[in-house]
Description:
Elements: H1 3-6, H2 19-31, E1 37-41, H3 48-60, H4 76-82, E2 89-93, H5 100-112, E3 121-126, H6 133-144, E4 150-156, H7 164-167, E5 171-174, H8 180-193, E6 197-198, H9 200-210, H10 214-225, E7 231-232, H11 234-237, H12 244-257, H13 261-273, H14 278-296, H15 307-316, H16 322-339, H17 347-359
Zinc ion binds at residues 61-63, 71-72, 74-75, 77-78.
Amino acid sequence: MNIYRTYRPRTFAEVAGQEHIKRTLQNEIATGTLVHAYIFSGPRAVGKTTTARLVTRAINCLSRNEGDSEPCNACDACMGILGNKTLDVIEIDAASHTGVDNVRENIISAARVGRAGLMWKVFIIDEVHMLSTSAFSALLKILEEPPSNVLFILATTELHKVPATVVSRCQRFDFKKIPPDAMRARLEHICSLEKKKVDASVLDAIVRLSGGCQRDAESLLDQVLSLDENHIDMEKATRVLPIGSLELVKKFVSSVIGKDAKEALHALDSAIENGIDVGVLCADIVEFLRTALLIKAGAKDLIAESDHEIQERDALCAPVSEAEILALLEYLLAAQRDMRYASLSQLPLEIAIAKMCGVLPQTS
Length: 364
Ligand SMILES: [Zn+2]
């Protein structure tokens, strides 16, 4: 199964994140105040093309009432667009059509030809920054004198490579990476539609691994669901996802906080046995404690983790103070420095464990 395709959002409400952009576009659709050209910029896989297709359906939908902004996805126009059966919606991947002739052929002449049945003819040009200079000037010409009922939606991951003359002719929207909670909510929704139970810790791990890219998150979820189990916990998920290290990091941190040097050394040993590089493990522990410090300082907004994961970290580090976390970080940073010269790569981390378990005040 391909989750990304199966569950591609069909309404604005289903799109994860991009709240400000959705609100503005929906308002323009509802009030009939769309401009004739848009440029969507931002990182890959955060919903630019999906949003472009949504706009395309919404403005052509035959069942949409005035004042509404969602497409019905059932009328002839919506179905024709969803099934790629209309000549009025032209999607061009500029990464594969860089020549000026292609743009002339595909855009200039097609834009001048009347519509084939839909209310709006729409050109979606993906990766528009890949167009050649001469292709851009051809595009600019048509943006300067747009035929009526023709809409251009340009999308790019590299806005700085698009000529300012083109950008200035468009309404510009800057798409952002998907916030962890919006992404997690979307993943939970998909799991419920698939009638699968996936543990919260697994979803957190997927959110973290995706780096804010919805498509990446959904393809990771795809791999997890392909395990063909009704209940997927962390242990099962680690068969397909590279998420073993976080569990070890948590175990490591909780044993250090509990001043249990023996358990911390075992966590280190099983990391090495699982082929996790000691330097990577150490960096992950540092990152973990860094987020714990940010949480304690009240700067949760700087952490790209879901609320659930933040709560878990907060609870795990509750017994120690900010000053104590700082002390732990100092030992770990020293271990990172020493690793470069150590004959035995895990030795500096082992020394750090001994020191860390000694630094915290004894609890009764
Ligand atoms: Zn419709």
